[in-house]
Amino acid sequence: MPAPRTVLLTGAAGGVGTLMRELLPAYGYELRLLDVVPVAGEPDAVVADLADRAALREAVRGVDAIVHLAGISLEAGFDAIVAANITGTHHLYEAAREEGVRRVVFASSNHAVGFTRRPGEGEPRVPVTTPHRPDTFYGLSKCFGEDLAQLYWDRDGIETVSVRIGSCFPEPTSVRMLSLWLSPGDCARLLHASLTAESVGHTVVNGSSANTRLWWDLSTARALGYEPRDDSEAYAEKLIAEQGLPEEGSADDVYLGGRFCVDPPRWPH
After folding, report:
1. Which of these, 63, 65, 155, 159, has the minimum number of CB atoms within 10 Å of its CB?
2. Residues 7-48: pLDDT tens digits?
């Protein structure tokens, strides 16, 4: 598939959005930015809530594809999650359908399968076919987003790559992130592959770098043309010295979602 020329980037003022609006233009994209708050240094960015269907449709009009990062990205109350991540994502897909946009890249999350047991040493990595096992209302909303993407492919022919993002930060900040880290450079490479791969239908991919301690199977991402280049191992010695390894039998030791499974926090994930 030829690289889309103009891409709507929702959530452009957020953590991942800020990183991607710096990195994606190098792949030849002209970005149209949208967020519920002003985007620093971007006076032409669209400032609109996902609840504003007219503004959202106007923002979608004329773009070739959408990278959907907007919404609440930490655990919050159920009503807030429903409004931003469930209803808001539905509004986005409706706008795409109405304006004839045929490719979406949806930011899903590791928290859609957070109650999956993480693999032990020598065990197979977690595939994208693992059943939904959300660890939070936030994770539940990402399950909904993946299923919504499937509906809009089956019913309306809108293709989506749902990327279960691990932890996209300039560098990992916890021992758990050593297994789920997606470097900003690799995130941009994965989004580019997701935007340009042919005939994706609805494809779910795990989004991590080529980490030595990787828990996830990246085969569906690699099938799109993704070639990760970074590895969190460079940060391992320092993080383990500072934080120690997880206590045996603890949520951090057992589950992919770690402590989110027992005490959903409001910290980087």
Report:
1. 155
2. 999 999 999 999 999 999 999 999 999 999 999 999 999 999
Residue spans per domain, the chain: 6-261
6-261: what fold? Rossmann fold (3.40.50)
Q: Which of 27, 29, 93, 138 is catalytic?
A: 138
pLDDT tens for each residue of 102-146: 999 999 999 999 999 999 888 999 999 999 999 999 999 999 999
Sheet holding 30-35, edge to edge: 46-47, 30-35, 6-10, 65-68, 103-109, 159-165, 202-207
Whether 138 sits among the annotated catalytic residues: the reply is: yes
pLDDT tens, 168-226? 999 999 999 999 999 999 999 999 999 999 999 999 999 999 999 999 999 999 999 99
Q: What is the 3-state secondary structure (H, E, C) of 184-220?
A: HHHHHHHHHHHHHCCCCCEEEEEECCCCCCCCECCHH
DSSP string for residues in the chain: -PPPSEEEEETTTSHHHHHHHHHGGGGTPEEEEEESSPPTT-TTSEE--TT-HHHHHHHHTT-SEEEE--S--S---HHHHIIIIIIHHHHHHHHHHHHT--EEEEEEEGGGGTTSBPP-TTSPPBPTTSPP--SSHHHHHHHHHHHHHHHHHHHH--EEEEEEE-B-SSS--STTHHHHB--HHHHHHHHHHHHH-S--SEEEEEE----TT--B--HHHHHTT------GGGGHHHHHHHH-PPPTTSHHHHBTTGGGGTS--SS--
Torsion of CA 261, 263, 267, 269, to 10 degrees: 0
